[in-house]
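Re-running the complex after MR caught last week's input typo. The corrected sequence lines follow. Everything else is unchanged.
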Amino acid sequence: MHPARSLILFTTLSGLGFGLLAFLCLGLPPLTSWAAVFFFGLAFVMAGAGLIASTFHLGHPERALKAFTQWRSSWLSREAWLATAALAAAGLYAAALIFADTRVAPLGWLAAVLSLATVYATSMIYAQLKTVPRWHHWSTSALFLALALAGGALLSGQAWPAIVLILGAGVLQFYAWKTGDRRLADSGTTLATATGLGARGEVRAFEPPHTGPNYLTREMVFVVARKHALKLRSIALVLAFLVPSLLLLLPYTLSLAAAAHLAGVLMLRWLFFAEAEHVVGLYYGKR
Amino acid sequence: MTDLPTHTDRSLGLVIDLDTCVGCHACVVACKGWNTENYGAPLADADAYGAQPIGSFLNRIHSYEVQPAEGPAQLVHFPKSCLHCDDAPCVTVCPTGASYKRVEDGIVLVNETDCIGCGLCAWACPYGARELDPVEKVMKKCTLCVDRIYNETLPEEDREPACVRTCPAGARHFGDLSDPQSTVSQLVEARGGIDLMPEQGTKPVNKYLPPRDRDIDLLAPLLEPVAEEPRGLLAWVDTALGKL
Ligand code: SF4
Ligand code: SF4
Ligand code: SF4
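Corrected-run output:
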């Protein structure tokens, strides 16, 4: 899939933002007055910026409100509802904390659950797609949630939970790559089934329908060189998981660890899109 | 709602004959023409006369080479447009309700004034049957020429999809695939019509007729030498010349 900047920013920032919100709303760390303003501000800015970035991907952002209508069938619509509900609940919780100096714990729990549910809905937009076998797996949602939790623990300064969660997410990422690399082959969809000509012999794409690119090839037929991918994966693993967990063992390195993690997750998300093979590529002889 | 209907009264669709398609792209042009002038936003091109032209099409023709274990390779032209799936994943993912499948005839359509151009439906379609219009930024797809097939201002013989009407090889057929008595259903029955990517579980309405097995050398037998040994006058000339 084409690694669109708007979607990379959206999934990274809103994932981290909602992860942070979940921790803050659980009272981890316990915050009051200016510290609360700063931390909740950071979480809202990240989650909000991510959601705004996602609208850049739309052909008609001015109609975005229509996306709230199909929650019964569409994960994208559910995500819109959950994100709004999470921000509203967290906003109320933060307002009570900052202006009235009271912690409404049940409201915080609700906001935390809604925040994580938002991340889950985002992950399901991708994981539901049978057409992208690499994404069509439970590990996609598990990884989105693990990264949100790890990032949330890190940004909220929960050093030990952060180390554990970051390492856990790293293992999960490794597993997702390891199994994901096989998933297109395992899906059983090939040029033979795509054309129905497989029983007659070896099928090869002879001539594309047109001499130039089209929407489909630009959007869904992105190929990363294997050598390239391996290098990027290694750098991303080091930045997103290794560096932050080592830094967290040292004092006063929280912001540095957070910066490395953010850079690493941005790379992971680039790979998440760029490496995902859409079966339509088969028709173009590109898989 | 983008829930799929549990039942459609009819299943209108196309039957595409891979045996007779000659790969002329006439249906592509007919489709582009009709859909640029009729239902919905015109099917646009961007940078049409520039260095990087790109355009939206609802129907495209691929060509594949099939190499059997023995014998020469065969070239198969492969028209592809929306298959109007019964279990259309493109419909259920749509957040706005712009994508829907009609109960009365099973046609899958996009309501362009509701579409936000998120592109998720194009991701959900395994066949590459949906393209975002480069100018209008709304999702375009085959409408099964819904504005022709019921159009009483057109002469009766034109009330079929533009691609079907145009095809010089008769490789595209239109009809109700839920009616076992329809000509398209009988064609599918007789020729062993198949689904594309059945494992994707989309239950496509459109069917494809595989190329037929036959001795493709129709003319060669006629060109065999008829007489190995010359007879009559030719035999006399032959022996006379041989004696010289
Ligand atoms: S072919 Fe693609 S666009 Fe058409 S109904 Fe099936 S899934 Fe949807
Ligand atoms: S691009 Fe339009 S029709 Fe397709 S899923 Fe998005 S809103 Fe629905
Ligand atoms: S039925 Fe109409 S819209 Fe669909 S491919 Fe044929 S000409 Fe194009």
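None of the earlier attempt is carried over here. The radius of gyration of chain A is 21 Å. Chain A touches chain B through 59 residues (CB under 8 Å).
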